[in-house]
Please model this.
Amino acid sequence: MCELLGMSANTPTDICFSFSGLMQRGGRTGPHSDGWGIVFYEGAGVREFRDPHPSCESEIARLVRNYPIKSDIVISHIRQANAGRVSLENTHPFTREFWGRNWTFAHNGQLKGIKKKELCYYRPVGTTDSEYAFCWLMCKLRERFPKPPARPATLQRYIHTLALELRELGVFNMLLTDSKHLYCFCSTKLSWITRKAPFEKATLKDDSLSVDFKKVTTENDIVTVVATEPLTTNESWNIMKPGELIVFREGQVEYHKE
Amino acid sequence: MCELLGMSANTPTDICFSFSGLMQRGGRTGPHSDGWGIVFYEGAGVREFRDPHPSCESEIARLVRNYPIKSDIVISHIRQANAGRVSLENTHPFTREFWGRNWTFAHNGQLKGIKKKELCYYRPVGTTDSEYAFCWLMCKLRERFPKPPARPATLQRYIHTLALELRELGVFNMLLTDSKHLYCFCSTKLSWITRKAPFEKATLKDDSLSVDFKKVTTENDIVTVVATEPLTTNESWNIMKPGELIVFREGQVEYHKE
Model:
């Protein structure tokens, strides 16, 4: 199965530690080897890195691992191809512009019959179920909300409804962002952890790397990391329930629905 | 002034040589130091690298320079900010999805009153005149052509009309691609060269680098490079005329209008 990784923070933070763990799953400690991608937000702007080659061998992945890009929101994905050939256009995450914001999406799972659903404004560039699902979701949002609704919860409730509908077609674990919020929907497998003061040391499962977070943070930092499976051996991760949506803003839970 | 760099080739080709020259203009041999970006196409898929920091100091630029990403179409830009603050969302090139393809755009020049023009489907994420102009151009294309027209020349003629209209507002040197064609519009300054067999040695103006293209090509390769100003000292570049549009496909001229 593909693996997801996301981050929401109240201060620009790098994800090198968690990404190192994820990178090893891309062919060394895990079977995932059909491409990877990562999108970093700095305010409204995005930086993305992607490669159809296995992440454990990728020169670009090595740059991301070693060059600490500080970011408020991150979405990353390692792909194990099931539907759609291995190619650059089939690597997640996918991005579309809506309301003058960059929206980014990554997914794991397979969705039977997704391509029977009708699209309007957005069309996929590649051939994956995932990108098609993203385009459909964005079309529905655009039809319903030509402008941002007055209350964020209105949008968040509707996103939950759409995610539940997509879940009917198969497995739909999702990370989505509108550049301000990180929407995490669990269909089968997703977990998260919020790190804040007092920070402690953490050790990755998939790499020999450990980090003492106390040394690289301030006492006001709040950083939430979301992953398909817990990345560290010595911390308490929250395991999401099937059908659950959590929306993080600046590292904290803003909305939650089961 | 900002600098543009583009490439259209009939075989996946790297742009390290030309990019080295452009990179030096980002703060060493030139005044351009408000960010840079580059988008590579591999078929329908895109890889992009961008940084609001000067290109001559950028770690990411160094990766691009040294890691030969082979591509059919490339658009790159170094920014000298005049309108719109220096930030990640204000770095070119800009990309939008249309007809299930990634369209990418970069621009140099300033456009007075561009933000009075009406937008529809696409909205800018940043604050530059350039991105606004791109969104307007894409809106007009989308209104006129809900689907690709039967004949490419129909679209190309219309793009020329829109570019001439934008040129009325100031300076509008443009590179645009729909993932198959490279549209080059000259408002004040743009030049190009097509390299094919028999290939020869070339020397950059802004770097000490020389390349003997015979050693890195086959006899069937056709590679066109487009730049604001000629990048090499010893080759014959074609200087475009104001108001001219040239459309390249696989390195060759497919459409041309003055």
Q: What stands out?
A: Chain B has a mean pLDDT of 90. The domain at 3-257 of chain B is CATH 3.60.20.10 (Glutamine Phosphoribosylpyrophosphate, subunit 1, domain 1). Helices of chain B lie at 16-25, 59-66, 129-144, 152-167.
